[in-house]
Amino acid sequence: MTQNQSRSFRLLRSAPTWRLPLLGLAAGCAGFLASPAHAEYRLASGDTIEVTIAGEPGLGRRARIDLDGRVAVPLIGEMPAAGLSLDDLRAQIQTGMASKVLRRRSADGREYPVTFSSDEISVDVAEYRPVYISGDVSKPGEQGFRPGMTLRQAVALAGGYDIVSQRIASPAFQIADLNAQRDLLLPQLADAQANIARIQAEIGGKNEISGSQIAAAGGADTVPPGLVQTQNTQISLRNAGQEREKTYLVEAQKAVQSRIEALNDQQQKESQGAQEDVNELTRAQNLSQRGLLTSDRLVDARRSQLLSATRLLQTLAETAQSEKDKQELAWKIGSFDDQHKLELLQALQDASLKLAMVRSQIRGVDEKLMVLGPRSQLIANDRQKPQLAIFRNAASGGQIAADENTELLPGDVVDVKLPRRPFPELSME
Question: What top-level branch of life does the organism fall under (predicted)?
Answer without folding.
Answer: Bacteria
